[in-house]
Amino acid sequence: MKIVVLDGYGMNPGDLRWDALGALGELTVYDRTRPEEVASRIAGAPIVYTNKVVLGRKTIEAAQDLRFIGVLATGVNVVDVEAARERGIPVCNVPAYSTDSVAQMTIALLLELCLHVGEHSRLVRAGEWTTSPDFCFWRYPLVELAGKTMGIVGLGSIGRAVAKIASALGMRVIAYRGHGEGVEMLPLKEVLAQADVLSLHCPLTKENARMIDEAALARMKPGAFLLNTARGGLLDEAAVAAALKSGRLAGAAVDVASSEPIAADNPLLTAPNCILTPHIAWATSAARVRLMDIAVENLRAFLAGKPINAVNL
Fold first, then answer.
1. What is the predicted pLDDT for the residue at 179?
2. What is the mean pLDDT of each run of 10 residues along the chain (313 residues)?
3. Can you give the pLDDT at residue 138?
């Protein structure tokens, strides 16, 4: 049985092993696959894994041997799941593998906005503490989180994990959509109005694309922080950049962009008080080991006639 991984490098740049997946068939792992290479690479393969390589309707319909699509991620927007369903092909994703890692990154970004640890370290190494007339200095306002309000959009597994950490820091937590014990659920307009920190943890859909736009930003507290470790398309990036430049937002930290890799003209690249990281919240070693393990279990379950984590069956 032929197994093809179209873009394995993103999740496994060499520090993990494909042995468990290879034990289930004749495995070929490509680091990356260009759109024009997809059809030839999956020809004759009943089992195909993708992370970010698009498998559209035409590709799925043309792949006559295709029987199983594994997504090496939680989001399945790169696959035409309806086209796969019509052919009886399960599309199996990997849910909840990165919950703790993404929550950890979310709080790391927030703490960097509050304390500017990296920048102060840079200034010390540049000699500014050595030459300071005082025993200490700080270049930015230092923010204490206790007593402030964390607003979460999307109280799923990651949102709940963030809520738990925020509560441990002494923050009041409110949220829009989802459910969580001890968290006050409010309409979005109230979350926007009350949050000192707004953190996004919802999937990207047609309905919520660019949900944080000029109007949403106008409803937020002046001086609030914005965090996005979910999907770049949730932000109107030009509006966020404008809010940072005007000072309405005190700071933003995002691990995702509307197009990835980030475009050279993305307005957030030149916005003040904006931390940008290259979509790494999910990518701790522990999370990627879990991803690999679940991806293998998905195939084992399919081969046993009992598919799991199938989003289209």
1. 87
2. 97 97 98 98 98 98 98 95 98 97 98 97 98 97 98 97 98 95 94 98 95 98 98 98 98 98 98 98 98 98 98 94
3. 97
**Which one from 201, 279, 288, 290 is the annotated catalytic residue?**
279
3-state secondary structure the chain: CEEEECCCCCCCCCCCCCHHHHCCCEEEECCCCCHHHHHHHHCCCCEEEECCCCECHHHHHHCCCCCEEEECCCCCCCECHHHHHHCCCCEECCCCCCHHHHHHHHHHHHHHHHHCHHHHHHHHHCCCCCCCCCCCCCCCCCCCCCCCEEEEEEECHHHHHHHHHHHHCCCEEEEEEECCCCCEECCHHHHHHHCCEEEECCCCCCCCCCCECHHHHHHCCCCEEEEECCCHHHECHHHHHHHHHHCCEEEEEECCCCCCCCCCCCHHHHCCCEEECCCCCCCCHHHHHHHHHHHHHHHHHHHCCCCCCECCC
279 catalytically annotated: yes
pLDDT at 69: 98
Choose the catalytic residue: 231, 237, 288, 290.
231
Is residue 300 flagged as an active site residue?
A: no
Q: Reply yes or no on whether 201 is catalytic.
A: no
pLDDT at 181: 84
The pLDDT value given to residue 50: 98
Integer Cα distance of 267 and 169 in angstroms: 32
What was the pLDDT predicted at 277?
Answer: 98
